[in-house]
Amino acid sequence: MSIQSIAHVEYHCADADATAAELCADYGFTAVLPDPDQLAAAESANARTVLLRQGTIRFLLRSAADPAHPVARYAARHGEGVAALALACPDPQAALDRAERHGARVLDRAGGLVAGFGDTALRFVPEVPSSPEPADGTPLLDALDHAAICLPAGELADAVRFCEAALGMHRIFGEYIEVGEQAMDSSVVQSASGEVTFTLIEPDTSRRPGQIDTFLADHDGAGVQHLAFRTGDIATAVRTARDNGVAFLTTPGTYYDALAERLGATAIPVDTLRELDVLVDQDHGGQLFQIFARSTHPRRTYFVELIERQGAGTFGTANIKALYEAVERQRAAASV
Q: How confident is the model over 280-306, as a mean pLDDT?
């Protein structure tokens, strides 16, 4: 009954076709016919569904014209975003039963759907053999590395316990992060397979409100703040996405001035990192490189991360402050 991977992401939006076209143009996704079982689990009448793929990433985009439709209600309340994460497991029914025994609220038993984080649900689905990538060139992105989920203050510990007991995940990391007068607490949970990773974040409300508080207010509750897509060549991925019109958050030059002293030699030259605004960190296993796209969401409640791992298994702890400050700069600029 253990969770093996994220089979697909269910993303609710105002116009599935327009969102699909944007993701294909910006990041190189390809639209394909949904698997019948996959479609049946998420489908309902009067909704448009488009499936995108790249590497092992599967995006199921859904929209509905009727404002009373559940998909339209989700988008109206939260803005476009991740409404469900489909978790592939050998025995979905056993996984659902385990989750229910440990307090998960079942939303749709036939569809394997349980409440997860706010209105972001979890769906247990069967494992399916991975099919070959369409012969249309080397994919820009390889896999879904992790999902970052913002939680209201005071809910982090319960969310970790839920992931451990109901989903069979385990906590692999945690950190309290301070940036100026703002602060947040975080924990990372991961499946035994290593293929499902959630970064769970809550604000410290005893400090000055910051971007996590803003997300929770603008999103109207807990939800997925960003998805991180893994790539084998982040320099090429960033250059290609930039050429396609994607804007990324910038990093102060002083960050790169201090890299040699902080890390020593980097697998990607510092000049390249500086040119592309890519961040770098390392752990005992190696280095990781990451960058965050500027949010194009009307509410600024969802964005994309690109990440390349060269042996590193952690999540850029030393870069979290840099990300936080970059997002703060974007938020301040947007309010002017």
A: 92
